[in-house]
What does this fold into?
Amino acid sequence: MSSPTAVLFDAPGPKARRRHAVLTALGAVLVALTLWVVLRKMSEAQQLQSTMWTPFLHGEAWREYLLPGLWGTVKAAGISIVLAGIFGLLFGVGRLSAVAPVRWVSGVVVEFFRAVPVLIMMIFAFNVYVFNAVFPSTLNPLAAVVTGLTLYNGSVLAELVRSGVHSLPTGQSEAGLSIGLTPGQVLRSIQLPQALTAMLPALIGQMVVILKDSALGYQITYLDLLNWSKTLGSNYANTVPAYIVAAVLFIVINFSLTVLARRVEQWLSSRGSGIESTAALETTVIGATVTVVPHGHVADEREPR
Amino acid sequence: MLDVLRNYDVLGAFWVTIQLTVLSAIGALVLGTIVAILRVSPVAVLRALGTSYVNSFRNTPLTLLMVFSILGATYILGLSLAQDSKGNIFRWAVVALSVYHAAFVCEALRSGVNTVPAGQAEAARSIGLTFGQSLREVILPQAFRSAIAPLGSTLIALTKNTTVAAVIGGTEAAGLMSEVVENETGSITVFLVFAIGFVIITLPMGILFTSLSRRLAVKR
It folds into this structure.
């Protein structure tokens, strides 16, 4: 059998084929039953009427609500990934520094912001900005969302930078040192370029986390896709369809990013420049293809945040 | 710092956080294991079911699930899980957290299944074990042991994600914090109290799971 899970089970005989047919039927019934319950609940609440769904076929719902919502989400996520990249680079390099106090401070900062929930940071940043009038009042929610996302994801990226550099073969830095480069030069011109290239898939994966987390801005009145969908739902009186459309939009965007990350990863390892040890190791021992990475940093099974 | 602890029920809020964490962790583990079994099963329909579950819930914001559970499921669809609104919010928060994190538990387990050498599964098959038996007796016990580290990071993320319940008016740590930080005009003490609270909960978890993953790892 060519299926990647084939190792867990034999090519089915007559008995197993019958069992599989029963299981297939059971699975189909389960799916149908779930769908039926959901649709019945929705029709009881009059959420299936065509008037609930037709707004999405017209330009207005998109122009007035969904596109501004998407723009809000993408704007917050875009600014955050850039700032988080800078933050991650600074503190990742800080954790690799030859100066011990710099290492300690960077370590404490990174570990602290990884341990604190993003929402707690957003709420705090929002209140600080509001009470101290740091930004024009319309910018406060965006600034708070970006602050929370940058601190958390920057710390995650800092760890990726560090583990990326650590997983390079020691021969790389030894070769650099032996031709007379200083440790700083070795880091800048030999280790970082390789580590950062290998990080690319993980960086795209982190983009998915950032996009999802930007929805937390809902709590501090940031106008992202979720918040606009809520407004859309109350204006057209189609709350349930509005959330379903928003969820589908999120899933489509994030799923495409995940696929892109996987492609980049394959492209990087097919280039064969000796960096596959830092990127995810593709293993197909048993079960479908899953990426397993040494230090617990996984591009595909990223952390749920 | 003591003022904050004295004037507000910080411990009570963190107690709700812990309750949410424990209940959702159990829910996510059970659901995630089922989805993982679906994803490695020999039946194509079930595999597709598992895959679409993971792809849907891993790519949807948890905030959206939470908001939908109250504004959509409770108000519009009339699916109330408790008589009082507080109980309803708590139970829906547990459901949303379990459903969301089950996708990550499934992926952690699947990466664990991947570390089991092919010879183990082949040996199980060759002595005549069925798919269910070889999964139960041979593959999953080893998969769980090597999935401890990713399961641990999922649990830590879940603990932090309980804060998302604040968007539907949950009375856990982040819900209380939004109130307190506004009363105290954005004081950093309030932030530190709540931030340190989470460090106190998640730090031992991290240490425990790291040592567990070392001790329980299957020696190969």
